[in-house]
Every structure is written in structure tokens, then in C-alpha cells.
Design goal:
Strand content: 25-35%
Distance between the termini: 13 Å
Number of helices: 1
Helix content: under 10%
Radius of gyration: 11 Å
Order of helices and strands: EHEEE
Amino acid sequence: MKLQIDISACIACGLCREVCPENAVHPKLNNTHHWFEIVAAECTGCGDCLGYCAAPGALVEQKAA
């Protein structure tokens, strides 16, 4: 299960980045706002970040291409 961040629900707290054992969460500048993104190639799908997310619905399963 690979994850991605729904920026419409994310509050950019950075907790997911802090707990990710693979360092798959990276800062991203979207226009003038600071957000985070999960790099799919680095995400192992461990789900460690799910329990720390402060914004319900911000971490979602990545849709298959």
C-alpha cells in the first residue's frame, strides 16, 4: 500500500515526514504554500505515518496508474 498526501486535507505539520523510516516524505512548494509530498519510489507502504497524521484524510492510498 503506497501512500500519497491529499494537499486539500493536509495541514503541513510535517509529522509524517518525521516518522517515515524511509525518508520518503519531502517538502514541496506549491505556489506560495509549503506542503509535503510522498515520493512513490521511496515509499515502502509500511504505514508508520498513518498513526501520526494530525489531519484526517490527508494520507490516502495511492491510486494505481
